[in-house]
Design a protein that fits this description.
Elements lengths: L4 E8 L4 H16 L3 E8 L4 H6 L3 E4 L8 H14 L3 E5 L1 H13 L4 E6 L16 H13 L2 E4 L2 H10 L7 E3 L6 H4 L6 H10 L7 E6 L8 H7 L1 H6 L3 E6 L5 H10 L6 E5 L5 H6 L2 E4 L8 H8 L3 E5 L4 H4 L7 E3 L4 H14 L4 H14 L2 H16 L1
Parallel strand pairs: 1-2, 1-4, 2-3, 4-5, 5-6, 6-7, 8-9, 8-11, 9-10, 11-12, 12-13
Helix pairs in contact: 1-17, 3-4, 4-5, 9-15
Length: 381
């Protein structure tokens, strides 16, 4: 039986949840199955060499812009050369151009993973259709695309867009490489050294927030909610990893509130794992989140996770069992939960253990990759 050929098309390889998921799935599929897999990125990014170094044949179109017909024609040319059985797209630009190029190239099986439940930067409302949603609905129907949702809230969003999508959509949760990530990267001495390099000491309780510095991720809301706690708690410190449009605003807020020595903006760091290991608490204060990769990355490291009760985060964490949830946009609830965690921290080992076990059972990347593989087999059979 000939190998199944799969081409993944993604809008770009900047650092993000979709890019991390595709990398991990591609590595697992190449390692564990007989599928022939290639990746096409419309625009390059920080992850391009990471993909190539992982042994994934990755083609960079090096094209920018949302309205760019060259993307379609370049994709069509490459697909004609590769002649895949399946094209699988990720993120809006790749969904649009990739599906149409696959359809016009005669490719029978087209998949798209939906990584979010909002097409707007200002918020998420799964009951309302944007202009992009309507365009995307047309393209899905025209190309006969199958849809993969990364959480049940995303599946609900898709079915709300069109009831016809219920028969072509399945939920496959994101995952992390449990086998790799459960092993500490840092020794006890290295943890102390990295803390010291960042300006933290052994007694500090470090809250780590990872993610783009954008409204969605809730950094500013988090800092404003706990500013008085930061001022009165001597050893509570904040570490923020990421870059984005709100960097200046966040920096100015910290300076104006006299909190510059209480929080460190470390910028973009390609490997967040060591920083997860030096933290005590992982905060995910997103105002909307389709999944919540930062949460499970913290959970598998045995960290206490404090997250807003939105979207996929509420599907990952069971409050008071394997982490803690606060009501979205409720500053007092956030502050109360964080104070409780800090007070009871020595007695929360059962929460850490339950979190690690949940990730092992439900969010292992091997399980995710196997479900993708099974979807391909079902389609082509």
């Amino acid at each position: 039986m000939p190998k199944i050929k799969v081409v993944h098309i993604i809008s770009g390889l900047g650092i993000g949840g979709a890019q991390t998921l595709l990398l991990d799935i591609a590595v697992q599929i190449i390692r564990s199955t007989d599928i022939e897999l290639n990746v096409i990125t419309i625009n390059s990014g920080e992850y391009l060499e990471t993909y190539r170094n992982a042994g994934i044949n990755t083609i960079d179109l090096a094209e920018k812009g949302l309205v760019n017909p060259k993307i379609y024609f370049k994709l069509k040319k490459i697909l004609k050369e590769l002649r895949p059985d399946i094209v699988h797209t990720h993120l809006h630009k790749a969904d649009f151009y990739g599906r149409l190029a696959a359809k016009s190239s005669g490719i029978k099986f087209i998949f798209s993973t939906c990584h979010n439940y909002s097409t707007k930067h200002s918020g998420a409302d799964i009951e309302k259709l944007s202009v992009f949603d309507r365009i995307d609905n047309f393209v899905v129907n025209y190309t006969g695309c199958r849809l993969i949702a990364i959480s049940d809230i995303v599946k609900k969003y898709l079915i709300n867009r069109s009831s016809a999508f219920s028969s072509v959509t399945e939920t496959i949760y994101n995952g992390v490489d449990v086998e790799k990530r459960i092993i500490p990267k840092l020794t006890v001495e290295q943890v102390s050294k990295l803390r010291h390099e960042l300006g933290f000491n052994r007694e500090d309780k470090i809250v780590l927030i990872m993610g783009r510095l954008e409204v969605q991720k809730g950094h500013l809301f988090f800092l404003k909610s706990i500013k008085e706690l930061l001022k009165t708690s001597g050893n509570l410190k904040i570490l923020i990893l990421g870059e984005g449009s709100l960097k200046k605003t966040i920096t100015e807020f910290l300076e104006n509130e006299g909190l510059k020595n209480k929080a460190k903006l470390a910028g973009f760091l390609p490997d967040s794992e060591p920083y997860t290991e030096i933290a005590d608490i992982i905060a995910v204060p997103s105002h909307w989140e389709a999944f919540g990769l930062a949460a499970i990355e913290g959970m598998i490291k045995g960290k206490i996770v404090l997250a807003s009760d939105v979207g996929g985060l509420a599907e990952i964490i069971t409050n008071n069992q394997d982490g803690f949830l606060f009501r979205n946009n409720d500053a007092s609830d956030l502050r109360m939960k964080l104070e409780m965690i800090l007070k009871d921290y020595p007695n929360l080992d059962h929460i850490k253990t339950a979190a690690m076990n949940k990730v092992k059972e439900r969010f292992d990347i091997k399980t995710t990759a196997l479900k993708y593989y099974d979807s391909y087999i079902r389609a082509t059979s």
